[in-house]
Amino acid sequence: MPKLKLPTAADLRSRIDEITAETVTDALVQHHRSKDDIMKTATFAGRDLLASEQRQYKEHMQEISKLEVLHDEVKIDRSQIIMTGDNPKDAPQFMQRVAPFDGSDALALRPQVVRDKALAALEYRHKDLNLPTPAMDKVDKLVRSNLTNHTQCDGSLIARRILLTENDDYRSAFMRVTTDPKAILTENESRALRAFEEFRAMSGGTDSAGGFGVPVFIDPSIIMTAQGSPNDILDIAQLVTITTDSWKGVSSAGVSWSFDTEGAEVSDDSPTLAQPEVPVHTARGFVPFSIEIGMDYPGFADELATMLREGYMELVSQKTTLGTGVNEPTGIVTALDANAAVEVLPTTDGAFVAADLYKLWDALPIKYRNRGDRVAWMSSTDVQNEVRNFGTTMGSNFTVDLTDEAIPRLFGRRYFLNDWMADFTSSVGAANLLIVGDWKNFLVAQRAGMSVELVPHMLGAAGRPTGQRGLFAWARIGSGSVNDLGFRILQNQ
């Protein structure tokens, strides 16, 4: 057997006193990558492994097994040692390393064990996938959640989904079945797909309706954050991930207090409770592609996933702003436009002047104005340009000059741009120009888990195949205001 160029177990074992567990983990990642690259090359070429590729694949698998054994033997660094007073000699106690993908049945494991393994998988995969820190932090928080600290998200379900979709067999099978309707799978790949099907059936809800689950660490319905998104609403709104069909909460304008006469019965100061609900709706995406591209373009499955993800983010940006709430999320503009109590009219219809900013800010109750960075402004670029022109010299209405990209703050609060909002037209007519408020009163609820399915043949107008296939994806998301009074919106009439 020819010697591999990558670090081998024998190489590392020869300097056992110098290496750490992280050194062995890095070697494991390199061999996993190389093994996966071999399979990807054959898959996208639409052929079986060549004899030389089979030999290389086997070599990598053998080295992975040896490195996993070495990992358990290697000296553990200080970050994995606990000193405890229970030991009379204060000897170091070694933490047992959790192996995320050790062949255990993810459906049969206890919730805490599943969470531990999922967190280990996050650590194992993040270097390979180059996951950004905000996405890692979000997944970590979701996995640790339970129905006690997060009544509408069971982190063990997300943890099981990680173990079922992030193992090498499932990821390899996923790339095959999303580009080839008759993909020939290995026994392990077929078993991985069946395990996910069983998990989805057990989970219930409409998510059990077919398709292949997108591996969690590339699934925008789970790792979606404001970073890299065209939607600043995700950065300032209350963003929650749920494993139910809708988010349900309780809100109140507050508890009233009173002074009463000595010895008199206390007045009825009970609050009025509202029970806002934000249902999730199904968003769909479709990308057609020719059979030739699917065969000739290595990495095409990854490119398709990127296209679907970007399209999904753009749709979410639009609907969290302007969605009607009918078979789609309720946008912030739609929600506030339906409540006359939060609408503020400009000084003169058809005109927009600096006095309108002061009027809008003053109309927002001080208890919402004083909530720090939870409070923010939002408008289209065109409306912000009008604001920039309110002061052309260093006076009270001056904001920035042309050297600045945008207005960072108004009245000490951040200012975000959203070009789904209306432009200023200098004419009379209904237009929602500018929003300010405590954005934690606007909620975006994501149902965890995006699914995709290959459409094997596209048909033309005459009902005959066109030589194209398609990738159909769906995910569920909702949004809505849970307390309109936490906002004010400037509305031209």
UniProtKB/TrEMBL annotation:
Pfam families: Phage_capsid (PF05065). The lineage of its organism: Bacteria, Bacillati, Actinomycetota, Actinomycetes, Streptosporangiales. InterPro entries: Phage_capsid, Phage_capsid-like_C. It comes from Nonomuraea muscovyensis. This is HK97 family phage major capsid protein. It is found in: Virion. Signal peptide: none annotated. Residues 210-491 form the Phage capsid-like C-terminal domain. It comes from the Bacteria. Its main location: virion. Transmembrane segments: none annotated.
